[in-house]
Write a sequence for this structure.
């Protein structure tokens, strides 16, 4: 893809496999990030920075991070799972 995309998933168990599948199908770098307990902080920061710099075109993130990510040049925000709350829908 030419534009950066951010995909939110509900479960940690889905983030990494979805990133692998998308990277193979799209042919571009795809990274994933999970909450504090599921991923080392340094890895999480590195993946987010790759996405911000445009080195990774797609970032798959767990819903626990949906309020803390701010990427101005991100064209698409995709919700993979159903919304858990009205707050997630906004």
């Amino acid at each position: 893809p030419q534009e950066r995309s951010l995909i939110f998933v509900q479960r940690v168990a889905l983030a990494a496999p979805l990133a692998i599948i998308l990277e193979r199908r799209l042919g571009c770098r795809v990274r994933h990030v999970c909450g504090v307990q599921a991923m080392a902080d340094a890895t999480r920061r590195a993946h987010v920075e790759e996405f911000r710099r445009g080195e990774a075109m797609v970032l798959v993130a767990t819903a626990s991070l949906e309020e803390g990510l701010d990427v101005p040049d991100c064209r698409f925000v995709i919700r993979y799972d159903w919304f858990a709350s009205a707050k997630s829908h906004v």
Observations:
- The chain has a mean pLDDT of 85.
- The radius of gyration is 12 Å.
- The first strand starts at residue 4 and ends at 9.
- The beta strands are 4-9, 30-33, 58-62, 74-79.
